[in-house]
């Protein structure tokens, strides 16, 4: 029974979560796109010479945060760059990517990227418990960050704590790569057949939490990933 | 609250959900960066006086009526419309001056003014808006409809101002001191209801030998203050029609920030230019059409950037250019330009009174003025002028609050 649940989580649920997430994002973006534009400019002056590149740069580098709360900005930048690197390092497990040597047991950053991302999420979560931010936060804010924290933490166990054995990695990047590759090729293979040992349950937990996150994403404020640039464009005219 | 009103309020909300408003509703991450941006919070640290605090009142209603899923609603603290929540809607609408300083803090640039616009329109639907603003807006519209009947009286009133204008600037023989209905004028000057807004401007334009015409209409747009887009358009439309009829090159808006923003940025393309009076003065100085005597303004002078012409209009340098021709003792406030603190009087607050709140919420502005050590506090907006004068009295700042136009007119060098 447990094996069947694990299989559902690691294979069919992944497809469902990804499909759900992509359709959800598309619907959300389309709904906003077909809504009539605001009837007048929402620009803030002074004028920017190149509003589009300026909006892109503004969304990516968050200069207003850097100016008004540098500590928060450092964590935000670390978090966002970290997430980008984590996406890349997951893709690097596939055979046709070779950013890290194919035979290396480590992911990009040797586990440090995940730890930095986890620390940043923890900071985002803890700062909500104090001061006026506590008054404006809603349960969804805490839960989303908690979910992200759990995803990141379980990922850290796989990418880093997994190596704390006498013989190094219990499960290697190649093991996970085979699982991911199977998913990409719709092999419907049970990863339990190739990945075994005590750490398998951590992988299942990580995949389950990541699935949950993907399913929640279109309904959460993480949608700012897709709206940060258009939003920044509005204030630049 | 009865079901019919609830339905009407949801409909109003829905109609105000532009693309921008939808993105603002859905993407705020409540990071709290905007908290420190608001003058009201900086003066009286209550979370309800923050951009995110005000927006949450509206966002929680949005979660209830425009989002699906019972769990999501609970997690986002969705609320049903009720009399209590309409009070919170009022708080969103009328504790914010629409200065948009928070936009310069928010990583996404969320415009609280847009969210405030939803709140104001909901209040109108519920017949809970400040009645003074609606009445003033209706009076402006009525004046537009009956203008032909009142033109004679207006011309007589303008004639009565001649003596005071001539005291500021002697007129050439045969020249109209306060001209009306000048076809093909370069400038249609739109003043406020009050001679303080006409006399200095007339003297300056006459000194510059401008071909100008005084508008029959007052610049202020109470439709914008009360948050009614249809009335805003109708009130501005009277001036637009007049400018088209006279075939003027430029409409010059007096020292009224909201009037400028409405005319320049909220009423679409027009066949004439729109500038502030501060820009016109700067142009006259630059072109050598007027000369100013610096000895008329001794002592330190500082300048308050009105939000609606500065952050919202980009008019940062022209007033400073003028002031630097009026005095050698100009000192900047800190912060200034885009980062300047709002005076706390915008968004209709001055018009509806609210003096206790205005004084409480603008302590940071009073402190900012005091820190300059200036004797003269200059600004270029009627709302700001009223609010700064009240602050001056309330906090004992000991400054003289002056319009840029008035300072300029007093310093005109008679050839």
UniProtKB/TrEMBL annotation, chain A:
InterPro entries: NarG-like_domain, NarG-like_sf
GO MF, any single term: oxidoreductase activity
Highest taxon of source: Bacteria
Oxidoreductase recorded as keyword: yes
GO cellular component: plasma membrane
Gene3D superfamilies: Transmembrane di-heme cytochromes, Chain C
Domain NarG-like: 77-235
Primary location group: membrane
Bilayer disposition of the protein: Multi-pass membrane protein
Designated name of the protein: NarG-like domain-containing protein
Keywords: Cell membrane, Membrane, Oxidoreductase, Transmembrane, Transmembrane helix
Location of this chain's protein in the cell: Cell membrane
Keyword Signal appears in the UniProt entry: no
Transmembrane regions listed in the UniProt entry: 6-27, 72-91, 111-130, 142-161, 197-217
Organism: Desulfoferula mesophila
Automatic annotation (TrEMBL), chain B:
Span of domain 4Fe-4S ferredoxin-type: 19-48, 86-116
Keywords, in A-Z order: 4Fe-4S, Electron transport, Iron, Iron-sulfur, Metal-binding, Transport
PANTHER family attached to this UniProt entry: FUMARATE REDUCTASE IRON-SULFUR SUBUNIT (PTHR43551), HETERODISULFIDE REDUCTASE (PTHR43551:SF1)
PROSITE patterns: 4FE4S_FER_1, 4FE4S_FER_2
Organism lineage string: Bacteria, Pseudomonadati, Thermodesulfobacteriota, Desulfarculia, Desulfarculales
InterPro entries: 4Fe4S_Fe-S-bd (IPR017896), 4Fe4S_Fe_S_CS (IPR017900), Cys_rich_dom (IPR004017), Helical_ferredxn (IPR009051)
Name under which the protein is recorded: Reductase
Gene Ontology MF: a single term: metal ion binding
């Amino acid at each position: 029974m447990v094996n069947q649940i694990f299989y559902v989580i690691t294979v069919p649920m992944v497809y469902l979560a990804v499909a759900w997430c992509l359709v959800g994002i598309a619907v959300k973006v389309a709904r906003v796109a077909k809504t009539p534009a605001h009837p007048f400019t929402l620009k803030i002056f002074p004028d920017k010479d190149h509003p589009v590149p300026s909006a892109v740069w503004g969304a990516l580098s968050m200069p207003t945060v850097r100016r008004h709360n540098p500590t928060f900005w450092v964590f935000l930048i670390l978090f966002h760059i970290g997430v980008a690197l984590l996406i890349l390092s997951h893709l690097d497990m596939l055979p046709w990517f070779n950013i890290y040597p194919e035979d290396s047991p480590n992911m990009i950053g040797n586990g440090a990227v995940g730890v930095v991302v986890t620390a940043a999420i923890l900071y985002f979560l803890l700062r909500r418990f104090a001061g006026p931010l506590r008054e404006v936060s809603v349960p969804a804010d805490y839960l989303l960050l908690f979910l992200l924290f759990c995803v990141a933490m379980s990922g850290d166990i796989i990418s880093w704590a997994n190596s704390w054995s006498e013989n190094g990695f219990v499960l290697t990047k190649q093991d996970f790569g085979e699982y991911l590759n199977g998913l990409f090729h719709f092999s419907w293979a049970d990863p339990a057949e190739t990945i075994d040992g005590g750490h398998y349950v951590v992988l299942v937990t990580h995949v389950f939490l990541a699935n949950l996150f993907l399913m929640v994403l279109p309904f959460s404020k993480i949608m700012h990933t897709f709206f940060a640039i258009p939003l920044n464009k509005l204030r630049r005219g | 609250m009865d079901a019919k009103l609830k339905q009407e309020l949801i409909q109003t909300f829905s109609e105000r959900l532009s693309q921008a408003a939808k993105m603002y509703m859905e993407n705020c991450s409540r990071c709290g960066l905007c908290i420190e941006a608001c003058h009201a919070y900086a003066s009286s640290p209550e979370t309800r006086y923050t951009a995110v605090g005000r927006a949450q009142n509206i966002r929680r209603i949005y979660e209830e009526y425009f989002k699906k899923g019972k769990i999501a609603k609970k997690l986002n603290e969705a609320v049903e419309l009720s009399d209590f929540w309409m009070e919170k809607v009022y708080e969103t609408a009328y504790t914010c001056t629409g200065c948009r300083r928070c936009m310069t803090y928010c990583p996404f640039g969320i415009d609280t003014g847009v969210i405030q616009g939803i709140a104001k329109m909901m209040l109108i639907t519920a017949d809970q808006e400040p009645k003074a603003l609606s009445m003033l807006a209706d009076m402006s519209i009525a004046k537009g409809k009956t203008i032909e009947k009142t033109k004679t009286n207006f011309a007589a009133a303008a004639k009565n101002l001649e003596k005071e204008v001539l005291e500021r600037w002697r007129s050439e023989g045969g020249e109209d001191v306060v001209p009306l209905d000048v076809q093909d004028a370069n400038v249609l000057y739109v003043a406020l209801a009050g001679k303080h807004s006409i006399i200095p401007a007339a003297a300056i334009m006459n000194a510059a030998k401008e071909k100008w015409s005084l508008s029959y209409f007052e610049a202020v747009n109470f439709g914008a203050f009360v948050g009614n887009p249809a009335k805003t358009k109708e009130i501005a439309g009277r001036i637009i029609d007049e400018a088209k009829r006279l075939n003027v090159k430029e409409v010059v808006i007096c020292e009224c920030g909201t009037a400028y923003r409405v005319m320049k940025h909220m009423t679409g393309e027009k066949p004439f230019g729109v500038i502030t009076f501060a820009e016109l003065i700067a142009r006259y100085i630059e072109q050598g059409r007027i000369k100013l005597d610096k000895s008329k303004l001794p002592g330190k002078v500082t300048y308050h950037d009105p939000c609606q012409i500065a952050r919202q209009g980009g008019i940062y340098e022209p007033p400073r250019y003028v002031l630097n021709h009026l005095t050698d003792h100009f000192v900047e406030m800190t912060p200034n330009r885009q980062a300047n603190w709002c005076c706390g009087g915008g968004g209709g607050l001055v018009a509806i009174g609210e003096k206790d709140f205005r004084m409480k919420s603008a302590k940071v502005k009073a402190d900012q003025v005091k820190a300059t050590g200036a004797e003269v506090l200059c600004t270029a907006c009627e709302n700001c002028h009223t609010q700064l004068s009240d602050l001056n009295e309330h906090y004992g700042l000991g400054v003289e609050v002056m319009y840029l136009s008035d300072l300029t007119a007093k310093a005109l060098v008679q050839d």
